[in-house]
């Protein structure tokens, strides 16, 4: 399991989803150009897959430590204060994604219980929204991996 989490599958899955989105959109544009017909499901798929890609990109950013942060004040502080600020920011990030994971899980359970289906494709909506709790949990794992690496190498 640890090797799987260390693998760069975010890039592979993200690239695959982006290729699927591009193909769907391209086919829809071609069909609309030559006919008066349009695939109503193309928007549903591309919007939901885009959410998946954003969450995968967030996971990758935390894994590599390239997430957006403002370092002006942080860099000006002495090392002991920076350590405290680093821990505080990590705790805030984990709390946010844990809440997102929890609320996403509640949403998925509600959609399963209420048997909600999508408008265009008539498939269960939980298939789309399961990404929120799953990828939020993955983001927490990536945050913890980065924290472990930063404390091991004293790069905080």
Describe the protein.
- This protein is mainly α.
- Helices cover 79% and strands 0% of the residues.
- It has 7 helices and no strands.
- The protein has helices spanning 2-6, 9-34, 41-64, 72-76, 79-114, 126-129, 131-153.
- Helix 5 (79-114) packs antiparallel against helix 7.
- The longest helix has 36 residues, at 79-114.
- The chain is elongated and about 65 Å long.
- The two termini are 27 Å apart.
- The model has no long low-confidence stretch (mean pLDDT 90).
Brief account:
The chain is 79% helix and 0% strand.
User: What is the alpha-carbon Rg in Å?
Assistant: 20 Å
Number of domains: 1
**Percent of residues in beta strands?**
under 5%
Following the backbone from N to C, one meets helices and strands in this order, namely HHHHHHH
List the helices and strands and how they pair.
Layout (H helix, E strand, L loop, with lengths): L1 H5 L2 H26 L6 H24 L7 H5 L2 H36 L11 H4 L1 H23 L3
Helix pairs in contact: 2-3, 3-7, 5-7
């Amino acid at each position: 399991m640890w090797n799987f989490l260390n693998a760069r599958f975010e890039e592979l899955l993200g690239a695959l989803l982006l290729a699927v989105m591009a193909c769907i959109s391209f086919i829809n544009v071609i069909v609309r150009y030559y006919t008066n017909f349009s695939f109503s499901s193309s928007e549903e798929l591309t919007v939901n897959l885009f959410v998946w890609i954003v969450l995968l990109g967030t996971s990758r950013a935390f894994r590599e430590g390239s997430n957006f942060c403002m370092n002006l004040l942080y860099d000006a502080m002495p090392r002991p204060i920076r350590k405290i600020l680093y821990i505080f920011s990590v705790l805030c990030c984990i709390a946010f994604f844990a809440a997102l994971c929890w609320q996403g899980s509640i949403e998925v359970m509600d959609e399963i219980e209420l048997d909600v289906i999508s408008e265009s494709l008539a498939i269960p909506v939980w298939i789309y929204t399961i990404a929120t709790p799953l990828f939020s949990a993955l983001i927490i794992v990536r945050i913890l991996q980065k924290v472990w690496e930063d404390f091991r190498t004293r790069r905080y």
